[in-house]
Design brief:
CATH superfamily of the largest domain: PmbA/TldD superfamily
Largest sheet: 6 strands, antiparallel
CATH class of the largest domain: Alpha Beta
Helix content: 10-25%
Radius of gyration: 24 Å
Order of helices and strands: HEEEHHEEEHEHHEEEHEHEEEHEEE
Shape: globular
CATH architecture of the largest domain: 2-Layer Sandwich
Number of helices: 9
Strand order of the largest sheet: 3-2-1-4-5-6
Amino acid sequence: MNALTSPARDDSAQRLDHLAELSERLLAMARSRGASQAEVSCSEDFGLSVNVRMGEVETVESTQDRAIGVTVYFGQRKGSASTGDLREESLAATVEQACAIARYTEDDPAAGLADPQRMAREFPDLGGWHPWQLDADAAVDLALACEAAGRDADARVRNSDGASVSSSHGLSVYANSHGFVGRERGTHHSISCALIAGTGEGMQRDGWYSTALARERLEAPEAIGRRAAQRTVARLGPRELATGQYPVLYSAEVARSLIGHLLGAVSGGALYRKASFLLDHAGRQIFPDWFSIEERPLLREGLRSGAFDAEGVATADSALVSRGVLQRYVLGSYSARKLGLSSTGNAGGIHNLEVAANAGDLTTMLKDMGTGLLVTELMGQGVNPVTGDYSRGAGGFWIENGQIAYPVDNVTVAGNLKDIFAAIEAVGSDVDRRSHIGIGSVLVGRMTVAGGQ
């Protein structure tokens, strides 16, 4: 069989049946031991990854993991235990351990399964299953081709941090004592390359990668290598930048970090702990009035699509931000109860997000900005989730007259996230589809940029 073709036999449906039967057995064990409610998660994950560097194989890793988690409730007392062992005595011991923990914990008024009427009833095929019969030899060949294309693309590329190829697929079942049984299966494939250009203290590093649910959606290995080389040599000869207030344009691959900070601030855990700079901000304007974010969990072939969340709650498309106004928080059942609200179907995290664009591609946005800083890399974790204070190391390019003038590094971009959100002037159409957060480049009208001058 060609290593780039799909498996001759796909037994995922039978394996999901087995996980579902196992889940129901574990729920029966929990009920027999007096649990008033119970939930079970069973998963199997398989993967292959290879790494090469300077034309030589560094690592080949094949993984196969199984995880079984059992959570029981005795009233509002909760206990959890897990195992990877399918022997009957191990399964029984896992349930018993979860029950023993629950019997000795304190009542928690927010504990318990999600509301039964919120359970998903429909399970559409969301197109997340694209297995790739990739063997180690073929994966190595792809990685070597990727790195070689990058190293050969420009004489200034003198070294390499290597190229990687990975492919994985996973099966999971979530079941609970409401009678809910949900099955999911998904695949994930990626190719990446990181290169080093220049010599001595003038060396620069950059790279590129492609990731997709289906191997057909991956960029060609040689194209990835050449893109990595192009990005790396473009960073050679960086200059210092004078400290000041400038427009800052976040390229699409780093712009999604801004949305990540938003999600952290509107997540239930941060809110009920009062550790968020957006506490009590639902219904308030935090972005410009043209800005919107839609959650689309049922998007076909979305990187985080799902008909139900980690508690079995049915998902549905909904606005997170509309006309600049925060419409809701991101809640599972536990955090919702702590806040006196209802689950938003986000137990386990957010699904696919689409940030609406109001501008053209990156080239157009550079021309519209005229002069300022294009950020293509962010370093460090300098964000205070309680106050919203933001200060991160950055690298990128200084823009003059709408064109790249020269590369810059070792600068810091700073502000407060509330001010940054309000100062967003444009979102580009150049969406980076390598993430579940679909967003183009983002122009912030003015930020503090600390340079070396």
